[in-house]
Amino acid sequence: MRTRPQRAAATGGPRPSNADLFKQSKDVGLQDTHSARPANMEALRTVKDSPTDNLNMLAHYASQASNQKGIYASGPLDARGLGPQQVQTSVPDRDKGEHTKVFGQMTGGEKSSTQYQKQLGTAEPETKYEILHGMGHGEGGKKTQSPNNLASASHGANTAMIPPDKAISGNPDVLVDTKFAMKPGTQRAEYVDQRFFHKDHPDQPFFSQRIDGDRPPVTTSEYKRLEQRASQFSDADTLRGAAHLMNLSKAARNGGSGGGDT
Q1: Strand (E) positions, the chain?
Q2: Phi, psi at 144, each rounded to 5°
């Protein structure tokens, strides 16, 4: 039977390091960041590759640019997010419907993200929209069900966030500072800036990506590439070393100390 990571209070021994806690959490299998049950995200959330995928994506972004939507949105946008938040080693099982309930309160009663986008007149044709967490529930627990952490964006946008979220889930060395760029006066995210920082170097993200709020579904091969990229920071010790090297490199470019260890 799998057990949760043991802390010093439970074992009577010395306090385990963050790296030890992270490894134990991975070994026992934490609750998935975006799902109430363990699941194969690739199989559930991706579409099969097609010879026309690249052409379809080009057409999508051409349309977005023409209509000044998503990552091409013009004019002032409202920022939304929790601010830098430390990842928790583990979180209790979540209330499956809490984010839907909160989203309904945010929209004045509409709990469907897709229907909400249709009501706004911002939905892309044949596009499914979901309620996104800026910081995944599996990373931050109950506080992530806040209106400041929820927004409406496409199924594809939500899927693109999952591999990086899963890679850092359970690692307390990581600070999540994901932000939504919101269409003013709405719950629609034009785009998502997903950013992770190492707690010892909070001024320089070790990972960031900007995701179109209307992004089409993620293909199987795209998801594999996202997973491969995210795997580079899934190990706590490797991440710590990489963050330190990034800080040294920044210090060298600036011609001075980067605020690291002396």
Answers
A1: 78-80, 85-86, 129-133, 150-154, 174-176, 179-182, 189-198, 207-212
A2: -75, -10
* Weakest mean pLDDT among 29-33, 112-116, 166-170, 238-242: 29-33
Token reading at 13: 């021994």
- The first and second tokens of residue 102, run together, are 């909160």
Torsion of CA 148, 35, 230, 51, to 10 degrees: -110
CA distance 110 to 195: 29
Cα separation, 170 vs 19, whole angstroms: 10
Count of H-run helices and E-run strands, the chain: 10, 8
What Å distances lie between residue 202 and 107, 173, 236, CA to CA? 34, 10, 16
- Give per-residue burial for 114-125: e unless 16+ CB within 10 Å, then b: bebbeebebbbe
- What pLDDT, on a 0 to 100 scale, did the predictor assign at position 15? 58
Largest CA distance in the chain: 63
* 34 band by pLDDT with thresholds 50, 70 and 90: very low
DSSP symbol at 175: E
